[in-house]
Amino acid sequence: MPSSSTKRPELSSVARVPGAARILGVDPGLTRCGFGLIDMLPNRKASFVNVGVAGTIAAETLDQRILTIFQVAQEWLDTYQPDALAIERIFAQEQVNTVIGTAHASGVVIAAAASRGIPVYFHTPSEVKAAVTGSGRADKASVGRMVTRILGLDVMPKPADAADALAIAICHGWRGGTTGGAIDTSAGVQTHQGSRPAAQQRSTVMTPAQRAWAEAAAKTARKNPRKWN
Q: CB-side exposure of 23: number of CA atoms within 13 Å?
């Protein structure tokens, strides 16, 4: 079992905002894996649900560290039953060891969601930054401040992995909803990480909650088309 030094976020069930899509954002990492949960209404109003960071230490064996991230992801998914999981797309621009560790964490989170039939969507770091701050080159502090403002929080979520996870969830709610609609930034793209083309995403069978959210979002978009630009 994971060592007692492992950091595990405390979870408790929270009632969903009526008519909202529940989105779990994940900032993957082996040392720190951020989880940020929001409820997003069709009018793009985001409500904070929970945030936390699962941490492991280098002294633990790799298999136990990966297992810890997997178990924590399962706890989030089973406790909150999100309509979609949004996760940061990994780029090989960083150090090789960092990328490998991030890929390990990302893989088990994706597997945990897929095993529960929860659709997984990928967003690039620059896409997330642009969505919440208006600039794809914003620094972490700027992202944290905007997340705090958007969600009406009293204090900025810390560490940065927590704020980033919430930013990923907000980005998906604004740009992808729960079904890849609104603005599909991965249309026609198939990568080594398995991001699905738009046509394939749309063919995914939706849950009743996802279907209701999509219908409400489409209705809002027709009434207020500029809000979705």
A: 36
Backbone angles phi, psi at 190, to 5 degrees: -125, 120
The answer to whether 50 and 80 are in contact (CB under 8 A) is yes
Low-confidence ranges of the chain (pLDDT < 70): 1-7, 9, 92-94, 177-214, 216-229
Question: Using CA atoms, how far apart are residues 228 and 105, in angstroms rounded to an integer?
Answer: 32
Residue 161 catalytic?
yes
> Edge-to-edge strands of the sheet including 84-88?
46-55, 32-40, 21-27, 84-88, 120-123
The active-site residue, picked from 75, 88, 164, 184, is: 88
**Whether the Cβ atoms of residue 105 and residue 66 lie closer than 8 Å to each other:** yes
Both tokens of residue 27? 């900032």
pTM above 0.70, yes or no: yes
Beta bridge partners of 35: 26, 52
60 is catalytic: no
Tell me the C-alpha distance between 99 and 88, whole Å.
Answer: 12
**Residue 216 structure tokens:** 């409400």
Q: Give the orientation angle of helix 96-114 with respect to helix 62-80, to 10 degrees.
A: 40
pLDDT digits (tens, 9 = 90+) for 64-112: 999 999 999 999 999 999 999 999 998 766 577 788 999 999 999 999 9
Catalytic entry in 75, 83, 127, 161: 161
154 noted as active-site residue: no
Taking a C-beta distance cutoff of 8 angstroms, is the pair 176, 183 a contact? yes
